[in-house]
Design a protein that fits this description.
3 strands; 55% helix; 130 residues; mainly alpha; globular
């Protein structure tokens, strides 16, 4: 299961009344490792002159890796986080997460990060089965 959804939040979802704030709170509580990595990258990007930061540290265990994969592989979770923080998240491998300010999405750095070349250059034997 990707998220720990409370009965109250599930009932709201069944009625169609879930706000982004409620959803993001559910994500934060359900995926604490992913939340920490993503908010850390976002904070770094906020302080960077070029509006870019990324995480290259592999998760300490498969459980944490799973959290990060669930957060970034889900369009709704990633989209909710992007809207909440006002950033564009990009993802490579099993742990390399980058945050870009919206003004940087059309930059050379963003295009390089999300390119086929960027993906291939970010491969290593240690990450083969991540």
């Amino acid at each position: 299961m990707s998220l720990d959804v409370s009965p109250a939040l599930l009932e709201k979802a069944e009625r169609g009344e879930v706000s982004d704030a409620e959803f993001v709170t559910c994500v934060r509580e359900s995926l604490p490792y992913a939340w920490t990595v993503i908010t850390g990258v976002i904070a770094e990007a906020d302080g960077a002159a070029d509006g870019f930061a990324d995480n290259e540290t592999p998760p300490p265990s498969e459980a944490e890796r799973g959290q990060l994969l669930r957060a970034l592989a889900s369009d709704s979770i990633r989209g909710g986080l992007e809207r909440h923080f006002g950033v564009k998240l990009a993802f490579q491998n099993c742990h390399r997460v980058a945050a870009f300010k919206p003004s940087q999405v059309d930059s050379d750095r963003y295009r390089a990060f999300v390119s086929v070349r960027g993906q291939l250059l970010n491969q290593s034997p240690e990450l083969r089965d991540c």
